[in-house]
Design a protein that fits this description.
The protein has 220 residues and is mostly helical. Helices cover 71% and strands 0% of the residues.
């Protein structure tokens, strides 16, 4: 078997695994956390569920994974890793109570940016791609960090949302690797359009003067 066939086989296996990985914690019963107590359990469970309570989190994180997969090796690994690391950093900043302005617009802009990058199939140099990912990941992490439940443990909460973010990135990578098949490239084009339009909607909601929403809850 030549190298190209081996690479294609590995990518197919990775795609299957990345699409199944999120099922890991979604399928777990609450009793699996019975061994942890008090703030640790509250923090971990809340952290695991927090990123899926807002569509802007979901779109932005999955889109980052899609774009990383489009960039191919080594970005297919480095983009998700950089996103997670800097998201955790942003979460710690939020937990410490440091003020960061423009968080919601920043998250919305991340959705627009990643959608446009997917649609245009942009392939900047790896350092530039890393800067883009790192910049937006801080906003995502900060938003998580500021929403720690009152009785939750910050460390376990951070661990929880990092795990779920990794699952969302894995879904994105699983979608993004279909660019290896020319017959399915239209799926990525449609994904880019949908993500960009969703980001515009999120941005409008984030900057509306009449928008008095709180940052909590399962809304936008």
């Amino acid at each position: 078997m030549n190298n190209s066939k081996i690479t294609q086989s590995r990518k197919r296996r990775f795609r299957r695994v990345s699409l199944l990985f999120p099922v890991f914690w979604l399928a777990l019963p609450p009793t699996v956390f019975n061994h942890t107590r008090g703030g640790e359990a509250i923090g971990l469970i809340s952290g695991l569920r927090h990123p899926i309570f807002r569509w802007d989190y979901i779109f932005g994180t999955v889109a980052a994974g899609i774009w990383g997969a489009q960039l191919d090796t080594p970005a297919i690994w480095l983009v998700p890793i950089a996103f997670i690391i800097m998201m955790v950093f942003g979460g710690v900043v939020g937990l410490l109570g440091v003020r960061l302005p423009g968080v919601r617009p920043g998250i919305a802009l991340s959705v627009i940016a990643f959608g446009a990058l997917i649609l245009s199939e942009a392939e900047p140099e790896l350092p530039i791609a890393a800067v883009i990912v790192v910049f937006f990941a801080i906003f995502h992490g900060y938003a998580h960090g500021t929403e720690l439940p009152p009785s939750g443990d910050g460390l376990f909460f951070t661990l929880g949302f990092a795990i779920t973010a990794a699952a969302l990135l894995a879904i994105g990578v699983g979608i993004g690797v279909i660019n290896q098949w020319s017959s399915l490239e239209m799926v990525l084009e449609i994904s880019g359009i949908v993500v960009t339009l969703a980001g515009i909607g999120f941005f409008w909601r984030a900057i509306r003067p009449s928008d008095k929403r709180t940052n909590r809850g399962a809304g936008w």
